[in-house]
Amino acid sequence: MNPARPRILTINGGSSSIKFALFEAGDALRQILAGAIERIGLPEATFQATGASQADRFSRSVTAPDHMAAVGILMDWVAARSEADPLTAVGHRVVHGGPNYSQPQRITADMVAELRQLSPFDPEHLPEEILLTEAFQRRFPDLPQVACFDTAFHHAMPRVAQMLPIPRRYEAQGLRRYGFHGLSYAFLLEELERLAGEEAAHGRVILAHLGNGASLAAVHDGKSLDTSMSFTPTAGVPMSTRSGDLDPGLIWYLARTEHMTAKQFNEMVNFQSGLLGVSETSSDMRDLLGREAQDVRAAEAINLFCYQVKKWIGAFAAALGGLDTLVFAGGIGENAPIVRARICAGLEFLGVELDAPRNAAQAGVISTDASRVTVRVMHTDEESMIAKLVCRVLDFGMAREEMKRAT
What we know:
The chain is built from 16 helices and 13 strands. It is α/β, with parallel strands linked by helices. It folds into two domains: about 5-150, ATPase, nucleotide binding domain (Nucleotidyltransferase, domain 5, 2-Layer Sandwich); about 195-375, Nucleotidyltransferase, domain 5 (2-Layer Sandwich).
């Protein structure tokens, strides 16, 4: 199948939202609209979209007490819109591919069954993502669907980076470092090659995806060598509500002193920790920056975040044997100059020299001309990466260079 101008809907299902975007794939990829159903499970859920046409620009309250209701709302909108502008394919971001899925693939009944078996690996995301694929299959049985796995980018990491220092028997059960944010990292590498050339993209690169979820990846020769997230997205640096790395002895301590269950501990480290837990006021970096001068808790949350990210940069520079390019991306990485400056302060020994005016102006390159390490700020776009991967899997007629970069 190779339609002249395929219409590809990308779906990114989260624990409380479903984000989507529509692309046209002709000689190049063009985004038509983007939107989301947000605040799923809360009294005032919202359904909004932004596009070029008036019909594709709206925002309204909806009743979405759970994901099933939200999916129904999305299905009805897709069906109505497809009457005039039929879809060609759907691409889904699937957070966890487990040990077997290292490439984007068409979704089949066998794949869905295997993903259901993997649900204990990622109980926060996989059940909702499976629900979305099944809903599309029921409503649009002839529409091809493609799963794009967020773990795939890290699938071929060196074995030493994958291994967890626990009894070897658990490795056979698939317990290892997987890493996440892979679609973002794939897009950033593609953009780095477009902006700076193949040599830069194949050099010693650290990619820092810093948003509500935050992680870093050490990349050399275009391949992931290591990443901060591990078996789950809770590991690594502190995030908006996730703890990042912790002493595992805390579990036993809290079980003894507070009778905390494993489920309660999981709730704490995923939804009550990170910036929110330390500040006790907000999980949003913008809020914390606005009040750090008056609130020591906000200041300490920011300092902890910057300190931990800096440590990971140092560790990954050691794993890479040096550093050529450092990329900041994600909501915090793209929009918080003061956070970037604090992270980079003290990294001069690695060759990082920030240009303060460029950093404040949100320039694409924020390092000085004399800096041995090029420091960049880049916008990441997981949705367009999903659309490109769908085109590759289904052999749609994108321009050859676009297809080359998508792989």
